[in-house]
């Protein structure tokens, strides 16, 4: 295939808009330069660059494969029924488990969902239904900003509001910190799902005399419900492994506690403490904990993925 | 492609406002008013939360900021025992580790994104996209643990000697000194792995938002596939790609646990990537529960305030850049 610059290259191409790049001019100028070089060289260069893309994809996937491989190999060695049923053993003693941390994580996730879901879904409904208004765009943008705040800063916030005045660390403070992190994730996924509901459905309901609230809740929200559930699950899987906001809110607990006003154990915290521990037994348990935590996270996010067959993207967690 | 199922974030499909009062001749019922009030309240909770977080963190950090003034940001003396707090080493560590992470992750992430959006055979596209996305689902603390046990020994025994001795870079200040395992380099590598999926996900969506006609025009003019990407696709998507990278930067700046576990936590400024360092987030994570006097706590919250400002600015820039591309597409 021989390439020669088209005849039209002499004629300046009118620019569609000042912001849009004048593609034709640029490509034509580049093409004129190129004819000087051999086509074969250009093809080879193209192959090389595409080869680099393959390499980049391989290198990007490699850490994941390594992490999962190490995790399964190390975790399987130290996982046992006791891990799920026993409390942490005293330092240096073999055995023990993370039963309290598993339950603690489930409690923290539940508190987070109770806080985060209503606000997130409500805000998502508002943003989707008032599209184009200044307030809706602002809220949408701020949801992204909130999503970008470092989790440790959310932890400081929860400590200032819920730990310092009360005087002790608590499960409630940890769960609320996680709930705050959930809000923007749920808002954005709910909004995207509601936007996919055909407007004709809404119009049909309104034409039949449904009130606005009933249209939104029993037609629009219902139609979008599977997607919203998926978004909520993805959000849960994102916060389930969060450690930083729990460090000085939930604090962790070596003993059995399900009281909401007391420090509570959490799987990520327990992994952190054991991973940095000098005791071999505790580091082994940390692997088991990491495997269980990843298992929980992956099962939730895989379940969410299956539910909507969402093939691209990070779900809502962009 | 599941395009209708998963529109790229920020891409607006215009929808007529639903509150068209012409549709409800009876006016708003109490139920409607309750519903609107409830969703409005939920929506307003988001700005409120941001304002509350900012106020609380600043109020908490104010005593330290007042006590030390500008020297809080410029002094590199962080000495809780004597009540002297200068956050420069932590700010330096955050900026250097994040910059290093961007340097390592950007080429790979853009490579993956271009690969997935342009070249990948369809049987490979989904599995690779899925695996890269899974990287974002791994908890930070697991990255940190993996970093301690597997990454750091590799860095200490293979990568650092290779960089220092085999390549002869040890004479430069950046790769000098003893090869500690826990180091700025380890933090940069872990962060790079962690932010890669974020950069590549945004980049992929931005690339897929480039109109087909743009590609076809370039190919029709005789461009090779790579020339098509370089001359037609990338320039069109440039600001969005840049936004994705900045978004990754925002993630890296605020990342806490994994960095805390591998960076070595030493409050010193060193040019060498082999030396341990400290970041803003890891200072807070390490010392917050141990801080006993109010000034120490306040200094930690002041660091949180600085981190908050930096990440808000970085994220706002990133969102604006991504939004520009998606607006062009929907226009």
Can you describe what's shown?
In chain A, 69% of the residues lie in helices and 0% in strands. Chain A contains eleven helices and no strands. Chain A has helices at 23-36, 39-78, 81-85, 99-129, 134-148, 151-163, 171-195, 199-207, 212-240, 267-275, 280-308. Mean pLDDT of chain A is 86; it is low at 1-10 and 310-318. Chain B has a domain at 96-281 and 315-330: MetI-like (MetI-like fold, Orthogonal Bundle). Chain B is 70% helix and 1% strand. Chain B has a two-stranded antiparallel sheet with strand order 1-2. The two termini of chain B are 22 Å apart. The interface between A and B is large, with 129 and 127 residues.
Portion of residues within helices of chain B: over 70%
Helix/strand order of chain A, N-terminal first: HHHHHHHHHHH
* Shape assignment of chain A: globular
Helix content of chain A: 55-70%
CATH superfamily of the domain at 96-281 and 315-330 in chain B: MetI-like
The N- to C-terminal Cα distance of chain B equals 22 Å
Q: In the CATH scheme, what's the topology name of the domain at 96-281 and 315-330 in chain B?
A: MetI-like fold
- Assembly of the depicted chains: heterodimer
Q: How far is the first residue's CA from the last residue's CA of chain A? A: 42 Å
- Strand content of the residues of chain A, in percent? under 5%
The whole-angstrom Rg of chain A is: 27 Å
Q: Describe the biggest sheet of chain A?
A: none
Q: Could you say which structural class the secondary elements and strand pairing of chain B correspond to?
A: mainly alpha
């Amino acid at each position: 295939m021989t390439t020669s610059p088209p005849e039209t290259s002499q004629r300046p191409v009118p620019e569609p808009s000042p912001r849009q790049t004048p593609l034709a001019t640029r490509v034509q100028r580049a093409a004129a330069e190129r004819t000087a070089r051999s086509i074969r060289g250009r093809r080879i260069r193209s192959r090389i660059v595409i080869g680099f893309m393959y390499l980049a994809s391989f290198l990007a996937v490699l850490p994941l494969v390594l992490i999962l491989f190490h995790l399964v190999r190390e975790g399987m060695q130290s996982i046992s029924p006791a891990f799920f049923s026993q409390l942490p053993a005293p330092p240096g003693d073999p055995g023990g488990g993370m039963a309290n941390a598993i339950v603690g994580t489930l409690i923290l996730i539940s508190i987070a969902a109770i806080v985060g879901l209503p606000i997130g879904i409500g805000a998502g409904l508002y943003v989707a239904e008032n599209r184009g208004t200044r307030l809706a765009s602002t809220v949408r943008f701020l949801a992204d900003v909130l999503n970008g705040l470092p989790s440790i800063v959310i932890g400081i916030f929860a400590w200032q509001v819920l730990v310092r005045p009360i005087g002790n660390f608590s499960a409630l403070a940890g769960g609320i910190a996680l709930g705050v992190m959930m809000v923007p994730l749920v808002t954005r996924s709910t909004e995207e799902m509601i936007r996919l509901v055909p407007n004709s459905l809404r119009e049909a309901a309104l034409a039949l005399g449904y009130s606005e609230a009933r249209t939104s809740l029993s037609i629009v929200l219902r139609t979008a419900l599977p997607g919203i559930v998926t978004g909520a699950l993805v959000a849960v899987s994102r916060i389930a492994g969060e450690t930083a906001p729990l460090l000085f809110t939930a604090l962790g607990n070596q003993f059995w506690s399900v009281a909401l006003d007391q420090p509570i154990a959490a799987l990520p915290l327990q992994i952190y403490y054991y991973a940095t521990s000098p005791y071999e037994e505790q580091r082994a348990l940390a692997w088991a904990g990491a495997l269980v935590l990843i298992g929980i996270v992956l099962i939730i996010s895989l379940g969410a993925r299956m539910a909507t067959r969402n093939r691209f993207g990070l779900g809502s967690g962009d | 492609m599941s395009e209708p199922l998963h529109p790229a974030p920020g891409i607006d499909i215009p929808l007529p406002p639903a509150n068209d009062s012409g549709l409800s001749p009876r006016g708003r019922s109490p139920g409607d008013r309750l519903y609107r009030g409830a969703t409005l309240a939920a929506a307003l909770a988001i700005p409120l939360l941001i304002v509350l977080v900012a106020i609380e963190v600043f109020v908490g950090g104010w005593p330290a900021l007042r006590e030390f003034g500008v020297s809080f940001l410029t002094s590199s003396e962080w000495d809780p025992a004597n009540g002297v707090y200068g956050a420069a080493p932590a700010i330096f560590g955050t900026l250097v580790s994040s910059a290093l992470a961007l340097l390592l992750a950007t080429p790979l992430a853009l490579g993956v994104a271009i690969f997935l959006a342009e070249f990948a055979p369809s049987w490979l596209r989904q599995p690779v996209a899925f695996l890269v996305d899974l990287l974002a689902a791994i908890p930070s603390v697991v990255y940190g643990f993996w970093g301690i046990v597997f990454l750091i020994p590799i860095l200490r025994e293979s990568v650092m000697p290779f960089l220092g001795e085999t390549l002869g870079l040890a004479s430069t200040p950046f790769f000098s000194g003893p090869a500690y395992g826990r180091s700025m380099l380890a933090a940069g590598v872990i962060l790079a792995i962690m932010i890669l999926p974020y950069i590549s996900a945004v980049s992929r969506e931005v690339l897929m938002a480039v109109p087909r006609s743009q590609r076809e025009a370039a190919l029709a003019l005789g461009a090779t596939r790579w020339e098509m990407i370089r001359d037609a696709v990338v320039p069109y998507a440039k600001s969005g790609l840049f936004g994705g990278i900045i978004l990754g930067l925002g993630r890296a700046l605020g990342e806490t646990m994994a960095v805390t576990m591998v960076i070595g936590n030493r409050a010193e400024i060193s040019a060498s990537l082999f030396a341990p360092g400290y970041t803003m987030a890891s200072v807070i994570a390490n010392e917050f529960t141990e801080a006993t006097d109010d000034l120490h706590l306040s200094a930690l919250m002041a660091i949180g305030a600085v981190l908050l400002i930096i990440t808000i600015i970085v994220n706002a820039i990133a969102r604006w850049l991504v939004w520009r591309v998606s607006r062009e597409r929907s226009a």
